[in-house]
Amino acid sequence: MCSSDLSRAGKSLLGGLLCTIELLKPNKRVWIVAPSYNLGEKEFRYVYDFLVNKLGQKYHGFTDFIVHQHYDARGGNMDIELANGSKIEVKSADNPDSLLGEEVDLMILSESAKISREVWERYLFARLLSRHGKAFFPTTPSGYDRFIYPMYVEGLDKSQSNVFVEQVNAYDCPHIDPKEIEMARQNLSEEFFEEQYMGNFVTYTGRVYKEFTIDRHVIDPFPIPEHWDKVRMIDYGVTNPFVCLWMAINPEGQAYVYREHYEAGKPISYHAGEIHRMTGREVIDVTYIDPSAGVKIDLGCFGIPCIDADNDIMSGISRVQEYMRLRGGKPSFFVFNTCKHTVEELMGYSWPEKKGDLNIKERPIKAADHTADCVRYGLAAMPSFSGSNVREKIIDGSFDYYLNQITQRRERGGIIGNENSYLN
């Protein structure tokens, strides 16, 4: 279970309630794991208050149900053991050796964005396996880390049964005055406000696609109508991932990334086979590829004819941003939530930090950008929103230009753009 929340949203209270409910069941083991004992004390404080104060005062004799208790946050000694055999302990992630050995039914990872992925994988995850335990990650986001953020993206796909995500922002909390929220919006930096009040993942050095948000652009899958135009975009890699994205364009000019292939360390023949398998009988109008990749002929030999993409980075980014912006309350670019790598990389795609007066070339950081490049290849060929009709005229190099070329070749009996013969 992964929860992406803002500060003061009641994360610690919820964690304390979950611990208390679990402890009232017989023979349960509960851990609160935090970056430090002081941070873990927040959830433990609620558990202590529920069991020792509230239940102890309301039900005569309940205090006898508590076998022993320790509450020493400074000394790192916080635990409660009940007569039913259940026990809760607070653990600190900065002391990994204390995280070994015991089996756990419920684990609360307090401020989990500040806990390393290594600690989770090496010390904590195995504690849950034998008891089929659950983990709860109450946290305020802390950038596009490699632990919480990928888990958050995975949870966006509702077909996943093992990860549940709930994102809460300041406006969802009745005990936070809306006037305070608006004052914070006016006085804080955009990035800090988005992280601390809206519970969003941000990069303080600057996201390339600040327009792209989970709630506006990431959607549940739906059947793509046959009459919609469909294109593919390929970013070649060997040690880096080989990426292919499928994008559909509706008659109104809105683009939908609906499928992704993302894998490294395989030969061209394997990727070509996967692209054919995943495409099935769909008619693909155009397949764009990085013109510097040098594998266009190889892919053509495997029945995947490609067209060099427009690789002007800055103009391509501008076109992508244009499709991401709202028009009439709705963007013109969407991604299915099953395309996890696309969502993750578009959210994390960032500019380098400028230091001093150095004249740094305007280029995004060249890391984890494979799907972002593919999106740019596809949308760079789409027309700009120069008027109400986004497909009013055919422009050399635009999507309609290539579609027109493909149509003419088909009418002449050519095979470019129609790969179904490969399947027969």
Walk me through the structure.
This protein has helices at 11-23, 37-58, 117-129, 148-156, 178-187, 190-196, 214-217, 268-279, 296-301, 313-324, 340-348, 370-380, 399-411, and strands at residues 2-5, 29-34, 66-72, 77-82, 87-92, 106-109, 134-139, 165-168, 218-219, 229-235, 242-249, 255-263, 286-289, 307-308, 333-336. The two termini are 45 Å apart. The chain has an 8-stranded mixed sheet with strand order 3-4-5-2-6-7-1-8. A 7-stranded mixed sheet has the order 9-15-12-11-10-13-14. Helices cover 33% and strands 19% of the residues. It has 13 helices and 15 strands. The chain has 424 residues and is of the alpha/beta class.
**Widest sheet, order of strands:** 3-4-5-2-6-7-1-8
Rounded to the nearest angstrom, the distance between the terminal CA atoms is: 45 Å
Helical region count?
Answer: 13
Which descriptor suits the 3D outline?
elongated
Report the structural category: alpha/beta
Poorly predicted spans? 356-361, 386-403, 405-424
How much beta, percentage-wise? 15-25%
Order of helices and strands: EHEHEEEEHEHEHHHEEEEHEHEHEHHH
Give the oligomeric state: single chain
Residue share in helix: 25-40%
Number of beta-strand segments = 15
User: What is the CA-based Rg, rounded?
Assistant: 26 Å
Largest sheet: 8 strands, mixed
